[in-house]
UniProtKB/TrEMBL annotation, chain A:
<keyword id="KW-0411">Iron-sulfur</keyword>
<dbReference type="InterPro" id="IPR023885">
    <property type="entry name" value="4Fe4S-binding_SPASM_dom"/>
</dbReference>
<dbReference type="InterPro" id="IPR034480">
    <property type="entry name" value="Heme_synthase-like"/>
</dbReference>
<dbReference type="InterPro" id="IPR013785">
    <property type="entry name" value="Aldolase_TIM"/>
</dbReference>
<dbReference type="GO" id="GO:0003824">
    <property type="term" value="F:catalytic activity"/>
</dbReference>
<dbReference type="InterPro" id="IPR006638">
    <property type="entry name" value="Elp3/MiaA/NifB-like_rSAM"/>
</dbReference>
<dbReference type="InterPro" id="IPR050377">
    <property type="entry name" value="Radical_SAM_PqqE_MftC-like"/>
</dbReference>
<keyword id="KW-0004">4Fe-4S</keyword>
<dbReference type="GO" id="GO:0051539">
    <property type="term" value="F:4 iron, 4 sulfur cluster binding"/>
</dbReference>
<dbReference type="Pfam" id="PF13186">
    <property type="entry name" value="SPASM"/>
</dbReference>
<keyword id="KW-0479">Metal-binding</keyword>
<dbReference type="InterPro" id="IPR007197">
    <property type="entry name" value="rSAM"/>
</dbReference>
<dbReference type="GO" id="GO:0046872">
    <property type="term" value="F:metal ion binding"/>
</dbReference>
<dbReference type="InterPro" id="IPR023913">
    <property type="entry name" value="MftC"/>
</dbReference>
<dbReference type="InterPro" id="IPR017200">
    <property type="entry name" value="PqqE-like"/>
</dbReference>
<dbReference type="InterPro" id="IPR058240">
    <property type="entry name" value="rSAM_sf"/>
</dbReference>
<keyword id="KW-0408">Iron</keyword>
Length: 410, 96
């Protein structure tokens, strides 16, 4: 499989900026995401991993412990645990403790469903554990539209429980959408209210996100609003280097401003498959399986895909853009899942090259897996809004209305 | 004593924080502080050697010597060490 054009091997530089080192990859990832399960109590419209049902091949408790042992040997200092909803795995709390006991810090993302006062108290008693509560609207109306009915209340209850238990500095993790980009100040206020830190990330057209990206992704003028807001408030807000495509507006945002896929970032999925990044769960970005291919270290250090991602890449049309050094062509996953060439502009390119690319001929790649529940659950979001036709001023006139003035309008 | 010894840090005793782990990388090392969650990069192998030598050396100057760093380059390394000190990666200790 060839992702990009064949390139001649180039030796790792020995001097120069650190970002050049990162392009050539590290001995172990800095930012490792581990989706513990595809099972989820929610069915968010934009789920990156199309989660819902548990995969029967999910790693067992012992296999998960072996992964943690290996991460400890590789000195992966912390792991971002997600899902699905990781806390509904019965051994979640055990694995959390196991990781922390083995010098692997844990940051986990949850919708809050299991964060009752007892769990909150346990979390408050641990070191090296960070908690991210997902919330995609500062109001129930905006949040539940994509995350499903009741999910706002669940998240707020979890935040309240954490605060009451004395847990310090929880994170509120927000995927920025067309609907919530107007609520950035309200999100910040909400975070302040619960002694939490706000974390904003970019909506990716991955997983079920591919189905709703056209409706949810921020409009071009909203990208500018977001950029200005981040420039003004960025010091107190986390972004996971998510918005480096916005750097082409001018000043770079804090962070790497580089696609880290396979270089400093990767993802382990619930069955032990290793992908280049959390937004690229697709066969084209599958580097190997840690059970079948000799462990995580082996996959990270020797997989053909990762070797390829770590060699200098051609960036086609983008290379001649004056902002190329700022955004470096943007997000690989966003291009792939919108059917754009990987060596062209990001679909949300702020210089407008994305829009013209989207308007051209493209084929959106078929998903290579889907864990969505086959029958809708009660928590499933219904992305419909009931409205009236704007041209109707009065009830329709029935065919048998006898009044000579029926249907008459001034 | 040369004029380079003017920086008081050279005469002080320091050590790598117990909360910090160093991970070797092709360019040097990655340092992670489990307490404040800060991640820092040591961009040169000599700096890694110096940081590792801090705890067993009487002074910072001794550690730099043991890491094989020529005296002419000490100011740059002291600056790097001060940077590590601001994020609590290395801590001052009582002279042994």
């Amino acid at each position: 499989m060839t992702l990009l054009d064949v390139r001649t091997p180039v030796a790792r530089p020995t001097t120069g900026p650190l970002v050049n080192q990162f392009e050539f990859g590290l001995d172990a990832p800095i930012c490792l995401t581990w989706e513990l399960t595809y099972a989820c109590n929610l069915a968010c419209a934009h789920c990156l991993s199309s989660s819902g049902k548990r995969d029967p091949r999910e790693l067992t408790t012992e296999q998960c412990e072996a992964v943690i042992d290996e991460l400890q040997r590789m000195q992966v200092f912390y792991v971002n645990i997600g899902g699905g909803e990781p806390t509904i795995r019965p051994d979640f709390w055990h694995l959390l403790q196991y990781a922390v006991d083995h010098n692997v810090g844990v940051k986990f993302s949850t919708n809050g469903v299991r964060l009752n006062p007892e769990r909150a108290a346990f979390l408050a008693s641990t070191d090296y554990v960070d908690v991210q509560i997902s919330l995609d609207g500062a109001t129930a109306e905006v949040n539940d539209y994509v995350r499903g009915p009741g999910s706002y209340d669940t998240a707020i209850t979890a935040l309240q429980n954490l605060q009451d238990a004395g847990f310090k500095d929880a994170k509120i993790s927000v995927v920025v959408t067309r609907q919530n980009v107007t609520q950035l100040d309200e999100f910040k206020a909400l975070a302040d209210q619960y002694g939490a830190t706000l974390r904003l990330t970019r909506l990716r057209p991955s997983g079920r996100g591919a189905d709703v990206w056209d409706e949810l992704h921020p409009l071009p003028e909203q990208q500018r609003v977001l950029y200005d807001w981040l420039m003004a408030n960025g010091d107190n807000v986390l972004t996971g280097d998510s918005f480096f495509h916005l750097a082409a507006f001018g000043e770079s945002l804090p962070g790497l401003n580089l696609c880290g896929a396979g270089r400093v970032v990767c993802l382990i999925d619930p069955i032990g498959d290793v992908y280049a990044c959390p937004f690229a769960i697709h066969d084209n970005f599958l580097a190997g399986n840690l059970l079948a291919d000799g462990g995580f270290k082996q996959v990270w250090q020797t997989s053909e895909l990762f070797q390829e991602l770590r060699s200098p890449q051609t960036s086609g049309a983008c290379t001649s853009c004056e902002f190329f050094d700022s955004c470096r062509g943007g997000c690989m996953a966003a291009k792939f899942f919108t059917g754009l060439p990987l060596d062209g502009p990001d679909p949300e390119c702020v210089q407008g090259y994305g829009e013209s690319a989207l308007a051209g001929e493209r084929t959106i790649p078929a998903a290579s897996q889907d864990h969505s529940r086959t029958t809708p659950g009660r928590n499933q979001p219904v992305m419909l809004t009931l409205t009236r036709r704007e041209d109707l001023e009065a009830p329709p006139v029935s065919a048998c209305a006898e009044n000579p003035l029926a249907g008459f309008r001034l | 004593m040369t004029t380079l010894m003017a920086d008081p840090m050279l005469a002080e005793a320091w050590t790598l924080s117990g909360s910090v782990a160093l991970r070797p990388e092709p360019f040097g090392a990655l340092a992670y502080h489990f307490g404040n969650r800060k991640l820092t990069f040591l961009k040169k192998q000599q700096l890694v050697d110096a940081v590792n030598a801090l705890g067993d050396s009487k002074t910072v100057a001794d550690a730099l010597t043991r890491a094989g760093i020529p005296e002419a380059q000490w100011p740059a390394y002291v600056k790097a060490l001060r940077g590590l000190a601001t994020s609590d990666m290395i801590l001052e200790r009582k002279p042994s």
